[in-house]
Design a protein that fits this description.
It contains ten helices and six strands. It has 212 residues and is of the alpha/beta class. Strands 2-1-3-4-5-6 form a six-stranded parallel β-sheet, sandwiched between helices. Strand 5, helix 5 and strand 6 form a beta-alpha-beta unit. The N and C termini lie far apart (39 Å).
Length: 212
Amino acid sequence: MDKRLRVLIADDSFVVRGGLRNFVQALEGFEVVGEAASGKEAVTLTQERRPDVVLMDLRMRDGDGIMATREIARNVPEAKTVVVTWSDEPEHVREAVAAGAKGYLVHGRFGADQLAQALRTVAEGGAIIAPSLATEIIAEAKRAASDPSRLTPRELEILTLVQRGRTNREIGAELGIEEKTVKNHINSIYSKLNISSRFEAMASASSGPKRP
């Protein structure tokens, strides 16, 4: 991606906003186009400045991050939200997914490289989840293998790569299969786990497969 990615930061802590700003500004190919101290302000600034990615805190005054994420997904869908929070609670991951977030990172558990990967991945239409949640994700996928709707070894392999933020094309190249075949496997995973998006495929492990 040649153009500079435009990033908006939303957190009610001045210190956290400053830390994220320094992180982003130190990355090549990124620029901070605004900062918001509340969910309501995050929605307004996103509509005005049209960032590629919004880094969103979960709990803020005057409209929390979940509300803001939902509004942004509805009204400015080209702006992708990555939740950046202190919580790795499964319920918070589920809330973020339901609101339309495309990524979920936990403070203190990512560095500059991981942040850059997350920003690029969601801007390009992918999804990303905190590496600290990866073990739970894969463990749940393996538990699903004991269900009647179990995942095949190939599906588990592909789910692992989805969790790492790989695109269908990248997965196909890594596994030596056609991109269309990857898509078919992912559709099967969605069906078995009763989900409908890549981020849900990642987050489902924190809560278990959804039930009809």
